Amino acid sequence: FVFISLYYLFSSYFNAVGKPEVVTVILVITLLIKFLSSIFAVARWGMFGAASTSTVSYFIGGLFFLVVFQRASKKSLRDIFIIRSADIKYVWDIFANSWKTNKVQLP
């Protein structure tokens, strides 16, 4: 579940900053990994093999997204995953402003 969340989070980021080719390349790599591993695993282990290949491909794709995002943003893993008080204040300010104006306006 965590790695599929990374998929959605980072693919949205790269699409928003105008780099959809990054998303496409990572998704194609993940698709190839899933397809090739499924040929073997599903024939051998059935449903368990299908579930396992999906989990492994999401894990690898999530790691690819994380590495590419980290390099593109030049942020440490700590900066990416640890929530700071400034982050909470930023989100609070957005919600407080949208509550007052009935519109979401990013600062």
What does this structure look like?
- With 107 residues, this protein is mainly α.
- Helix content is 84%, strand content 0%.
- The chain contains 5 helices and no strands.
- The chain has helices at residues 2-16, 20-45, 47-73, 77-81, 85-101.
- The longest helix is centred in the middle third of the chain and has 27 residues, at 47-73.
Quick structural gist:
This protein has 107 residues and is mostly helical. 84% of the residues lie in helices and 0% in strands.
Gyration radius over CA: 18 Å
**How far apart are the first and last residues' alpha carbons, in Å?**
31 Å
Record field, number of beta strands: 0
Overall pLDDT metric: 88
Largest sheet: none
Keywords, separated by commas or semicolons:
about 110 residues; single chain; 5 helices; mainly alpha
Topology:
Layout: H1 2-16, H2 20-45, H3 47-73, H4 77-81, H5 85-101
Helix pairs in contact: 1-2, 1-3, 2-3
